[in-house]
Amino acid sequence: MKKLLFIVNPCSGKGKIRTRILDILDIFIKAGYDVKVHITQRSLDAREAVIKKGKRADLIVCSGGDGTLNETVSGIMELKNPPVLGYIPSGSTNDYGTSLRIPKNMIQAAQIAVRGDLYMADVGMFCGERYFVYIAGFGAFTEVSYITPQDKKNLLGHQAYVMEAVKNLSPLKSSHMKVCWEQEDGSIREMEGDFIFGMVTNAVSVGGFKGLVKGNVVLNDGIFEGLFIHMPKTPMDFSNIVSYLLIRDEEENECVKRIRARRIECHSSEPVDWTLDGEFGGTKTDVVIENLQERIGIHSLHK
């Protein structure tokens, strides 16, 4: 009988998984799996459980938010023969689930977890020591997506993000940084300046909002989408930043730089706090971000 390891964060999404877990287990068993359940107890518990208990699993399914998914994927990446991943989103943002077209309905997601199409997705490596699923970022807006009240998101959508982002522009703090990146064609580009925000991502939405990432994002092309915002020097610069975020213009302006890259290096003069999939990723002066193409298999509806 096939073996399934089910990683559950009972606190994610106000604990909604508690009322559906028997129905979900029934789906797994009827699909022919011998199921072992692990309820997470603390930070990094999902990663540790995958490393200890996932070696013999044919499928690992996790239920939780982006943080739980990050830990699960990080654990799978440590296994010699990585099993396939299934995902039941239950957090407040679920950016990666949205990118994979996995529904928020837990029963539907559970069915996809065991019967969905296999999609080989890229994984990000941060400084050669940590992994991220869809975003690595620093600066002014890094936590905005996660502190914006859900009622504002539901009512105003993208504009809610901008409203909260603008609030965070008042105590502006920049980081002087040199950014070097390898483009799709293998050529190397670089820029240097004072940045108030930067993100490297592989998702169609960030913080629950579509449109912050431009272009046709492909999750298995070996390419990250990057967005870097310079420190505004004049009221017009400030206006250009807000306009870019609010209107979502396709064109860059002097304060906003978008890139597409296989590999990115960021070297700062002072230590900078980074977040990985919404969780603290460390304080660094030298950062190397690499795209590990098609490194993990996940059941989804994404083609």
From TrEMBL:
Any GO CC annotation of this UniProt entry: plasma membrane
Q: Which PROSITE patterns does this entry report, sorted A to Z?
A: DAGK (PS50146)
Entries under SMART domains matching the protein:
DAGKc
Keyword Zinc in annotation: no
- Top-level taxon: Bacteria
Enumerate the Pfam families for this protein. DAGK_cat
* UniProt xrefs under NCBIfam families: YegS/Rv2252/BmrU family lipid kinase
- PANTHER family in the cross-refs: LIPID KINASE YEGS, SPHINGOSINE KINASE
- What this protein is called in its record is YegS/Rv2252/BmrU family lipid kinase
Q: Which organism is it from?
A: Candidatus Lachnoclostridium stercoravium
